[in-house]
From TrEMBL, chain A:
Pfam families named among the record's database cross-references: Skp1, Skp1_POZ
Name of protein: SKP1-like protein
Domain SKP1 component POZ: 11-68
Residue segments, region Disordered: 139-163
Positions of the SKP1 component dimerisation domain: 107-152
Function: Involved in ubiquitination and subsequent proteasomal degradation of target proteins. Together with CUL1, RBX1 and a F-box protein, it forms a SCF E3 ubiquitin ligase complex. The functional specificity of this complex depends on the type of F-box protein. In the SCF complex, it serves as an adapter that links the F-box protein to CUL1.
Comp. bias (Acidic residues): 152-163
Listed InterPro entries: SKP1, SKP1-like, SKP1-like_dim_sf, SKP1/BTB/POZ_sf, Skp1_comp_dimer, Skp1_comp_POZ
Keywords per UniProt: Ubl conjugation pathway
Pathway involvement of the protein, from the record: Protein modification; protein ubiquitination
Family: Belongs to the SKP1 family.
Top-level taxon: Eukaryota
Provenance organism: Nicotiana attenuata (Coyote tobacco)
Subunit: Part of a SCF (SKP1-cullin-F-box) protein ligase complex.
UniProtKB/TrEMBL annotation, chain B:
Organism of provenance: Nicotiana attenuata
PANTHER family: BNACNNG10540D PROTEIN (PTHR31672), F-BOX PROTEIN CPR30-LIKE (PTHR31672:SF13)
Domain F-box: 9-49
Protein name as it appears in the record: F-box protein
InterPro entries, alphabetized: F-box-assoc_dom_typ3, F-box-assoc_interact_dom, F-box-like_dom_sf, F-box_dom, SCF_F-box_component
């Protein structure tokens, strides 16, 4: 498949999980190790990403554009953008983090993981189960043992999983 | 993680997030499921977590001070301070007494070593206290049981604290010289002794075959635990060699 070009700039199409297409400059996706390899070695012009929701992909492309425009003079502005970028509900932030991990965008991955960590550090055991969709496989006896040992870890006021 | 209990998110992402969380959270994460427990307790994860660079938000200044309480009574206090990066320094936690260090003399010769894998050692020539800054717990270690024979004296060259990754255990050691005095009260050449304490088995032992040519290590000269070995800077003046030779001692 030959890459289509407009002027000097190569154009690439990314296809999200719900078949929505995003057309962007090829140079932007070079920030992703995964896409860079696909573009450089396989010379593709359209990449399907069925595991990534379009909503998530929109966010990531927004980041790639901002990051490409980063210069020493707008560093503060970029920091504010980053803060706003992770200011989404926790489930969405986790979706973004997983997608960024898959795409191998290293700087953004570090930033997202730290943002998740900051958000969950005070969550209770029950909340962590909900957030990561983990089912407890402890026996009821073991479970009540934990609750006896560290009752504060199970406290209800920490159970908010949305923020 | 691979057994499907964590269905929704890939294990590498979850681990990447967990590495950034304090031990307090990890203790809670253990209670989430058996897989989580196994993960957090695995030596691979523990090593990754220890080596993960902490953010500046976790930094604080640990200050040990000693106050004169009475004529022959000094009290040791730990204070925990942090700063927002401006000039203002504030206290993070209430001050803590260091009960085992309430002694009848001023403590100029104390040393703080660490944190090494989460533990800080506070040592004076006799007492060693291990302190865990994240839980604020102390542990007083037993003193070395090796006494000097009658008529001999012991001069302590150096003490230290480190982690031996070969046996996966913390070690405390003491290097000293046991000597006698001649009839005029001058010290005669003595014998170098090295004693090592292993935290996991709670035992002190004396090393055999100590190199008697070990250069003098002074209690207060800078020494540090770096990359799994203890390092000293020592002057080799007594052999008229170049100053500042670096000595590395591997504890076995």
């Amino acid at each position: 498949m030959a890459s289509s070009t407009t002027g000097e700039k190569k154009i690439l199409t990314l296809k999200g999980g719900d078949n929505e297409e995003f057309i962007l400059e090829e140079s932007l996706v070079l920030q992703s190790e995964l896409l860079k390899n696909m573009v450089k070695e396989e010379r593709v012009s359209s990449i399907p990403l069925p595991s990534i929701k379009s909503k998530t992909l929109v966010k990531i492309i927004e980041y790639l554009k901002k990051h490409a425009e980063l210069t020493p003079s707008n560093k503060e502005e970029f920091k504010n953008f980053e803060k706003e970028f992770v200011n989404v509900v926790l489930e969405e932030l986790l979706d973004i983090t997983v997608a960024v991990n898959y795409l191998k965008i290293n700087g953004l991955l570090e930033f997202c993981c730290q943002a998740v960590a900051d958000r969950i550090k005070d969550k209770s055991v029950e909340a962590v189960r909900k957030i990561f969709r983990i089912e407890s496989d402890f026996t009821p006896e073991e479970e009540s043992e934990f609750r006896k040992e560290t009752p504060e870890a199970f406290e209800g006021d920490l159970d908010d999983t949305t923020n | 993680m691979e057994d499907g209990i964590m269905k929704k998110y890939p294990a590498d992402v979850v681990i990447n997030i967990l590495l950034r969380l304090p031990v307090k959270f990890l203790l809670r994460f253990e209670s989430v499921s058996k897989t989580c427990y196994t993960l957090v307790r695995s030596s691979t994860f523990i090593n990754l977590h220890l080596n993960h660079t902490t953010t500046s938000k976790d930094d604080y200044i640990l200050l040990k001070r000693s106050f004169k309480e009475d004529v022959e009574r000094y009290k040791a206090i730990f204070s925990f301070h942090s700063s927002d990066g401006d000039d203002y320094i504030y206290s993070l936690y209430p001050d803590r007494d260091v009960p085992y260090m309430t002694i009848p003399y001023s403590i100029d010769n104390d040393i703080l070593i660490g944190p090494i894998r989460g533990l800080i050692a506070l040592m004076d020539p006799i007492t060693t206290i291990l302190f865990n800054p994240s839980t604020k717990n102390y542990r007083l270690l037993p003193p070395s049981p090796f006494n000097v024979p009658k008529g001999f004296r012991r001069s302590i060259d150096s003490s230290g604290f480190g982690f031996d990754s070969v046996v996966n255990d913390f070690k405390v050691f003491r290097i000293s010289e046991v000597y006698t005095e001649d009839r005029f009260g001058y010290p005669e050449k003595g014998e170098k002794k090295v004693e090592v304490y292993e935290l996991g088995i709670d035992i002190w032992r004396e090393l055999d075959h100590v190199d008697q040519e070990l250069p003098a290590l002074f209690w207060l000269t800078s020494s540090m635990f770096y990359k799994g070995a203890y390092h000293w800077i020592t002057t080799h003046w007594f052999r008229a060699l170049d100053d500042g030779e670096l000595v590395i001692l591997f504890l076995t």
